[in-house]
Amino acid sequence: MTCAELYDRLTDFVDGTLRGDVCDEVQRHLQECADCGAVRQDLEDLARLCRQTAAKPTTMPDVVRHRIEVLLAAEDAPRHPAS
Question: What's the pLDDT tens digit per position in 38-60?
Answer without folding.
Answer: 999 999 999 888 888 877 777 88
